[in-house]
Design a protein that fits this description.
Shape: globular
Strand content: 15-25%
CATH superfamily of the largest domain: Metallo-dependent phosphatases
Largest sheet: 6 strands, mixed
CATH architecture of the largest domain: 4-Layer Sandwich
Helix content: 25-40%
Strand order of the largest sheet: 6-5-4-1-15-16
CATH topology of the largest domain: Purple Acid Phosphatase, chain A, domain 2
CATH class of the largest domain: Alpha Beta
Number of helices: 13
Structural class: alpha/beta
Number of strands: 19
Length: about 375
């Protein structure tokens, strides 16, 4: 059985106030071309369909068109909600769509029933587990000890009654410990959202969403396919792709990728103003890419953004790296601050104000409070 694994479309997203909708339509068209070439039996979309819980109408229309075109290819399509989505909105109409081969994850209620596919090697059970927090799972299993995201996933999976003699696929949207993150992903306090990959031992393939860099975690079968487009300059070095999974008899798995080519790449340039505006240096390059430019001139260039946009119309971000800015960074210690958790930062502030560190009881209370605030966020 051949599967196409997608995730984190983030339809409707804006990057540095630039709408990505046309770029997203372009890349979805490219994905459909890959699907036509590969002829898979199913497409897995592992969450963050939209960039907001209440997406713009244009984003909904784009996903509606994508689903209709997939359905017209007689494919089975499996979709779950991610942390950026509204679980209720993704679930809407799911029971009606099942008959068209479009399977949408329902709002989590403590049960996850598999959807079975068959091929020459027998049955393949697909489980749709949308993004959940410990509080979501705790509600349906009040007797279980659920203190962490790993606990929550373990309890949710244990309730699935997985048939070990079948090939089993899980779609879920979580941060698995060890995954390499990017700036554009929503993160929690001190890694509190980490899930141990060991909880997925019963599955022959785990189609993960949430992390934007394509990567497998622990074993090839536990995989993030990554975003189809670059959504922050921390992703400038990523190679975006579509993951193709082939399942034969149980235990026989192949994973490979198809590269994706964006309408506009997202790149970083560095140099003096004169160098970057010298036609000999930019002629023949993709000047319409989305760019973060760092100028190394010691003096600020008046109206630099407007001037640079005559050459690079999609300039998204401009900053300087020179003696002045490096001195400011040394004074503020900004890089060091960014590496610290909210708990560490609060602890430093508390100690300065009270001339003593947080007690163990205060620290424990604060950890719980921070985690509660993060859990209640989108």
């Amino acid at each position: 059985m051949k599967l196409i694994h997608l995730s984190d479309l983030h339809l409707g997203k804006r990057v540095n106030e630039f709408s990505m909708l046309e770029d997203q339509a372009y890349i979805l068209e490219q994905i459909l071309t890959i699907i036509d070439a590969e002829q898979p039996q199913a497409v897995l979309v592992a969450g963050d369909i939209y960039d907001k819980a209440v997406p713009a109408a244009e984003a909904v229309q784009l996903f509606d068109d994508f689903l209709c075109r997939l359905s017209g290819r007689s494919l089975q399509v499996f979709v779950i909600s991610g942390n950026h989505d509204s679980a209720e909105r993704i679930a809407f109409g799911g029971r009606l769509m099942d008959g068209s081969g479009i399977h949408l994850s329902p709002v989590y209620d403590g049960t996850v029933e598999p959807i079975s596919l068959t091929d020459e090697w027998g049955a393949v059970d697909v489980y749709l587990l949308p993004f959940v927090k410990p509080a979501h799972v705790r509600r349906f299993f009040p007797e279980a000890s659920i203190e962490s995201y790993t606990d929550a996933m373990a309890v949710a999976i244990s309730a699935m009654e997985i048939k070990e003699d079948r090939r089993n696929i899980l779609l879920t949207h979580q941060f698995v410990t060890g995954a390499l993150r990017s700036d554009s992903e929503q993160i929690s306090v001190g890694g509190a959202d980490n899930v141990d990959a060991a909880v997925f031992a019963s599955f022959d393939y785990v189609a993960l969403g949430h992390i934007h860099r394509p990567q497998s975690i622990g074993r090839e079968a536990v995989r993030y396919c990554g975003t189809p487009l670059k959504y922050s300059f921390s992703e400038a070095g990523h190679r975006k792709s579509v993951t193709v999974v082939e399942l034969r008899e149980k235990g026989d798995l192949t994973v490979r990728t198809h590269p994706l080519t964006p309408r506009h790449d997202l790149r970083e340039l560095r140099g003096t103003y004169l160098d970057l505006t010298d036609r000999r240096n930019y002629a023949g390059t993709a000047t319409e890419d989305y760019l973060h430019i760092t100028l190394t001139d010691e003096e600020d260039i008046p109206d630099a953004v407007s001037k640079l946009r005559t050459v690079y119309p999609n300039l998204m971000k401009l900053d300087y790296d020179n003696t002045r800015t490096r001195h400011q960074m040394e004074i503020t210690g900004g890089t060091e601050v960014e590496r610290k958790s909210p708990l560490e930062l609060f602890g430093e502030l508390f100690e300065k104000q009270n001339n003593r560190p947080l007690s163990s009881g205060e620290e424990s209370f604060l950890e719980g409070l921070i985690e509660k605030i993060w859990e209640e966020g989108t």
